[in-house]
Specification:
Structural class: mainly beta
Shape: globular
Number of strands: 36
Strand content: 35-45%
Length: 589
Amino acid sequence: MTSPVLDGLGTPRSRLSPARILTLGVALVGLLAAFFVATTQNAEAAEVVVSQGKPATASSTEVAGAYQPGEAVDGNNGTRWASSFSPSQWWQVDLGAPTAVSRIAINWEGAYAKAFTIQFSTNGSSYTQAYATTTGTGGQQSIAVSGTARYVRINLTERALAIYGYSFWEFQVFSGGGTTPPTTPPTTPPTTPPTGSTRLLSYNKPAAASTWQNDVNCNPCSPDKAFDNDPASRWATSSTNGWVDPGWISVDLGATAQISQVVLQWDPAYARSYQIQVSNDNANWSPIYTTTTGDGLKDVINATGTGRYVRMYGTQRSSAYGYSLWEFSIYGTGGAPVNPPAKPADPTFPASRLVFEDNFNEAAGTKPSTAKWTYDPGVPQNGEIQYYTPNSENAQTDGQGNLVMEARRQDYQGRQYTSARMNTGGKFSTQYGRFEARIKVPKGNGLWPAFWMMGDDFLSGRPWPYNGEIDIMEVLGRNTNEMYTTLHAPAYNGGGGYGQKNAAGVDLSQDFHVYAAEWDSKGIRFFLDGRQVFNAAKDTVENTRGPWIFDHKFYLILNLAVGGDFPGPIDATTPFPSRMLVDYVRVYQ
């Protein structure tokens, strides 16, 4: 159930790079070597995106008026192009003039292509092939190519998800760059930091930055937020004087350390060019990693160096804004590390230890137990038209082992419809496990039954979506042959949440069905009647959408909404009363 989107994501972006002075001696050989190195670095730094904002066309779109071709070249990783649900599709960008192309970067949505080709054309009619694959794996792809093109086309021939089409958040065409590839993060970063004696060194350490933002859009986005092990908080350069190059953020590890890995989780305000630098005195800095082709999201950098201080020094911004990082994590040995809070162990699935259960076996007319559930009254969000009544007036057991949540046409508190919403907030919350409910949903235009979870820090004042939301099941009464599973976080929420529509194969309103999520430190897998319908893998989300903010406690919610932005309006055919029946809710670890 999507909650209202709260302002707070206006993140500036910018980058800077330190001047490079090469002194290799006074000998002629040294001078020539310095000239060669400087020339090579300048050539690499010249690589630029030449596709952003250019006209784009495609064979189709998934929905009329939405997911348009131009949304893949708008520089916004929260918008995307999506095709119709058939295997043969294409997408193309017009660069405006013949251009020397050096690289293609694709940020795929979950509906990626296993097989596709990249083609170049100077006239829009005859094409040459620049790249081909039959083993695409989605995520973020960086493809080295060479050739001259005005038109760059991707021909898509095999889908990863056979029931959908193709979709990517951004398709970037680059021009320029040196002949020696710059050091870049691995395409598929390791899922865990280095093992052995290495550990997280940067948690809760003193931080500093060139500037930082503290206004209505980011309050506060101070440098310490990048080292708090909280991926829902971030550092950003100031919106008044920090949208310039260079921009930097540093951390004091407390003592000399041997660095072996740096992980950056960028906000969309990322650095195109930056260095990771080390220092022993916080004054003199040495680079241990340099790139001029940063593409945002998650960078896992296996670079080695020694120093007490570590700095990200940005020299070229990806946009007109500044720089912003959700997390800046440094791993290695030495330093003076502080242990972050321990996470619970991953469950072993199938999980069998029951930690929460309500079977609703009480006598007919019994209200949900207040030892397990909190009634959640009031005016809803998302354009819904019902009033959720207090004291569970619209929810009670039927004496046959079911909870009945009823939407009624009823005047109440200025509304013409009532319904029920209840949650386990303050009664039960947990991290990881299998969460399942057996539910029969109602059919009817504008009805919106849901089984979902909210991060329990919402109860202590953290606003949505920074607390996180996990939608295990949403069904729209206008089409009960499908269900939705979605994650909401600061970087992906509302209509841009991470998830998908799942074909049920049956009419879900005709019988009970089991909706479940299995959640651990690697991700969340969603199930319908034991069949996995969607896998939200943590690494994939971090590398394609933004930070994974779900490693903390969540509580459960059941509700039946009426109308709203997502299901659309009710009409004369919508039945009232309408009932959502819940056989049981269980959590296993």
